[in-house]
Structures are given as structure tokens and as C-alpha cells.
Amino acid sequence: MSRDLPSLNALRAFEAAARLLSIGKAGEELHVTHGAISRQVRLLEEELGVALLVRDGRGVKLTDAGQRLRDVAGESFQRLQTLCGELRRQPLDAPFVLDCPGSLLARWLIPRLSRIDRDLPELRLQLSSSQGELQPLTSGAHATLLFCEPPWPADVRVYELASESIGPVLSPRYGHYPQLCGAAPDALLGEALLHTGSRPQAWPQWALRNGLAPEELRFGQGFEHLYYLLEAAVAGLGVAIAPRQLVADDLASGRLEAPWGFVETQARLALWVPARQADPRAERLAAWLYRELGER
Questions:
Q1: Which of 25, 94, 242, 258 counts the highest number of beta carbons within 10 A?
Q2: In this predicted structure, which of 47-51, 132-136, 203-207, 210-214 has the lowest mean pLDDT?
Q3: Tens of pLDDT along 66-83?
Q4: Which residues form the HTH lysR-type domain (predicted)?
Q5: Is there a contact between 180 and 187 (Cβ–Cβ < 8 Å)?
Q6: Backbone conformation region of residue 151, classed left if phi is above 0, alpha if psi is from -120 to 50, else beta
Q7: Which of 197, 73, 184 is nearest to 132 (CA)?
Q8: Contact 117, 125 (CB under 8 A)
Q9: Is the entire prediction scored with pTM above 0.70?
Q10: Secondary structure (3-state) at 130
Q11: Three-state DSSP state, 26
């Protein structure tokens, strides 16, 4: 790809001359002679096969091609300057800050933290929990791990890690457990279902996928966060609903059961990385998370 680009020195000389509309001022800014700027611009024009600058009195003016190249080159150099400034301010051994919802942090990420530290010691991973609605592009973290639905914003790099599957779960300690295990999904229409305000769409989505009318569902105790909802289910207080990844360890240990399985939603568990401040460590973390989710 680099062979398709002209000399960066020539582009830098042109960008300065085009921005300042002066060969002399461009030379002063870049600490080179007037002749050096002129030669670089001429070489760039010869390589591209178009005129970019024409003399205008004691200065220069842009051709149509020159205006187009100035706009793109100016924006690109500005972005490079901004990023380099950010990198200079960031210590080489700075921790990698990962933001994610508290339920995902507590029930999935923390149990795997020792393996992440072992396999990716260069991350020096620092976890940040958000109890409210996540703002992946403004949180200040290097990356955000969350369940979300496409389409994705243009200014973010999204690593899709796994599809989201949701399903009802209950503890063997729940009083209605013997009647519910082995029953059809419509048996839940008679239950006062546990629910959370952070995922109001979960039960209706599951009902529709199982041929049930969402309006026939009955809701009991509500919880502000998914983490509390699942702790209530583990305590035997009722039937909850959750993404499969967040209850995988509970299912494996027998603390919870999922008699009706899971149904896939349009959401994805994904790692969001703001494009303007992408850290190369994010790609290594995404690869680790992808393998972990695929193996378990």
C-alpha cells in the first residue's frame, strides 16, 4: 500500500504551502528553504500528473485538484499530530483501562481476570465498572466491553466476540422448581417473573421466540441491575432471564439451571475501541476474549 502513496515529505511540503498559500511561509514553518518546498511540490505534481499550485502575485493559489488534496492531507496530518500528542502523554507502561457493565464485570470478567493477567501481562488491565448506561466513546477508557446491537458508529472499531443468547434460569432451591423442570415454556405464564429495568426487552423477546404473547407475562420483583437479578435467582427467589455468558459458570456449577435453553437476539457481545485513540493492545485483548468465549 505504501507504494501507492507519494513521498510524505512532498505531501508535508505541499500541505504547508497550501494551508499558508505561500511557498516562503511554508519553508519557514518546516525550517527548510523556499527552493526545497518548491522542489517537493513540483515532484508531487509530477508523480500525480496534475497541477496543484499556481502562482498568484507574490503567493500561490490552489487548483481544484490542489484543494481536494489539501483538505485530505490537512485532516490526516492533524489527526496524526493529535494522536502523537496523546501517545507522548501516555506512559509506555500505562494500564489498559477496560470499561464494562457491573453485571458483566462481576459475573464473567472477574472470574477470568487471573487468566487474562497471565496470558496478557503487558495489558496491566484496569477494570472500570459502569452502573448506568455506557457511553463507549466518551468514557475515557481504552475500550468498552458490552452487549449491544448493530449498526455500529463510524468512529469506533468494534470487535464482535459472540452473539447474545438469552434464556430463563432458576435455582433448584426455588419452591416451584419441581413443577417447572420439564414443563413447556408456557408454564412460565403463571409465574411472577423476576426482571430488571436495565433489560426490559429481554422477557418479551424470549416470549415471542417461544410463540408466547408478551402481554400474558406476569412480572414480580424487579431489580435495578442484572447482577442483583441473578443473585436473586441463585437465592431461589424466582425465575430470571439473562444472557447465556453471564450464567455459564452458574450452570456449570449447578447453582442455576436453564430448562428452556436460550434464544439468540440481534445483540452481540463486543469490544468497542474509539478509533481516534485506538491502543494496539486492544486487538490482543479482543483475540483473547474471542478465544475464551469460543472455548466455554
A1: 242
A2: 132-136
A3: 899 999 988 888 888 777
A4: 6-63
A5: yes
A6: beta
A7: 197
A8: yes
A9: no
A10: strand
A11: helix
Can you say how many angstroms the Cα of residue 133 is from the centroid of all Cα atoms in its chain? Answer: 14
Q: How far is CA 249 from the centre of its chain?
A: 24
Say what the pLDDT of residue 1 is: 40
Q: Omega into 172 within 30° of 0, i.e. cis?
A: no
How does the average pLDDT of the chain come out, rounded?
89
**CA distance to 22, 23, 60, per residue, from 28 (Å):** 10, 9, 16
Spatial distance between the Cα atoms of 227 and 231, rounded to a whole number of angstroms: 6
How many whole angstroms from its chain centre is CA 145? 6
| Domain parsing of the chain, residue ranges | 2-89, 95-296
Cell numbers of 111, please?
472470574
Pair 267, 261: CB distance under 8 Å: no
Query: DSSP assignment of 124-182, as one string?
Result: --EEEEESS---TTTS--SEEEEEE-SPPPTTEEEEEEEEEEEEEEB-TTSTTHHHHTT
Question: Tens digits of per-residue pLDDT, 217-240?
Answer: 999 999 988 999 999 999 999 999
Phi/psi for 127 (5° steps) reads -95, 140
The 10s digit of each residue's pLDDT in 72-114 is: 988 888 888 777 666 655 555 689 999 999 999 999 999 999 9
Euclidean distance between CA atoms 30 and 161, whole angstroms: 45
**Cα separation, 234 vs 255, whole angstroms:** 6
For residue 211, what is the DSSP state?
A: T
CA 95 to chain centre: 18
**What element of type H or E holds 238?**
none
- For residue 164, give the 3-state DSSP assignment: strand
**Residues 218 and 189 sit within 8 Å (Cβ to Cβ):** yes
Q: Residue 282, Cβ neighbours under 10 Å: how many?
A: 21
Decide: residue 243, CB within 10 A, 0-12 exposed, 13-18 middle, 19+ buried. Answer: buried
Specify whether domain 95-296 bears CATH 3.40.1550.20: no
